[in-house]
Specification:
243 residues, alpha+beta, four-stranded antiparallel β-sheet
């Protein structure tokens, strides 16, 4: 995915309507709850929870919502029985797609995801069919402004353990090992940097470009419909979009 189109996608997600933001916050709350159930309510001893909180903050989720999600998951109200299921497949033109879900009904979710792939010219594959095309990495996006000193940012990030800092036209992309993501994010946050996006994600090793207009439209619709699905938490793909 080209640098400019990646930035456009990030800004687009930030500019969602209030109703859409509510759905995003609900999904982030589920992610926080799963982290609490897996490792407890203290982010200092639960790295998965710390990562989920960093992602929630980068998406402008209010602290009250974050604390409410943690409290609910660690208290008597924690009665949701969700399981994590990852689907892999190909979109139009052979674009590799990974869909991470949290569901309380795996049959419903599997049927819905398969239907969306089929409807928009793709096909759902087996576990591992595309994941080898991606690297699991921590990713932090910071907007490039006149106030941001590139050398200072790079030094702070690399000294904290970042693998790489990439300067694009409109933003900086900090890449980390998943195990070092929390430390790097916390260090940059304490240094005063504001994140446009921060998460442990599946980053594509190579990209696929679509030139057929129908395929482009179908790929856009596939991503959009997957994002709207209540059970879908994250979508990763290797589509190289035009600006």
């Amino acid at each position: 995915m080209s640098g400019h189109s990646k930035w456009n996608n990030i800004r687009h997600k930030k500019e969602k309507t209030d109703a859409q933001k509510g759905k995003i916050f609900t999904k982030l709350g589920k992610e926080i709850a799963m982290a609490v159930k897996a490792g407890g309510p203290d982010p200092n001893t639960n790295s998965r929870l710390k990562d989920a909180i960093a992602k929630a903050k980068a998406n402008n989720m209010p602290n009250d919502n974050i604390m409410r999600s943690i409290k609910k998951a660690s208290g008597d109200q924690a009665d949701d029985n969700y399981e994590e299921i990852v689907y892999e497949g190909y979109g139009p033109g052979g674009v590799a797609v990974i869909v991470e879900t949290l569901t309380d009904n795996r049959n419903r979710t599997a049927g819905d995801i398969r239907h969306l792939f089929d409807k928009f010219g793709g096909n759902l594959g087996t576990t591992g069919c595309v994941s080898f095309m991606f690297d699991k990495r921590g990713q932090i996006i910071i907007e490039k402004t006149e106030k941001t000193d590139e050398d200072s940012l790079m030094m702070t990030a690399l000294e904290a353990g970042a693998l790489d800092v990439v300067a694009e036209d409109e933003y900086y992309e900090i890449i980390t090992d998943p195990m070092d993501f929390s430390v790097v994010a916390e260090t940059l946050e304490k240094a005063g940097y504001k994140f446009e996006n921060a998460e442990v994600a599946m980053l594509p090793k190579t990209t696929t470009k679509l030139t057929n207009e129908d395929m482009i439209v179908n790929m856009e619709k596939l991503i959009e419909r997957l994002e709207d699905h209540d059970d879908v938490q994250n979508i990763y793909h290797n589509w190289e979009q035009d600006d």
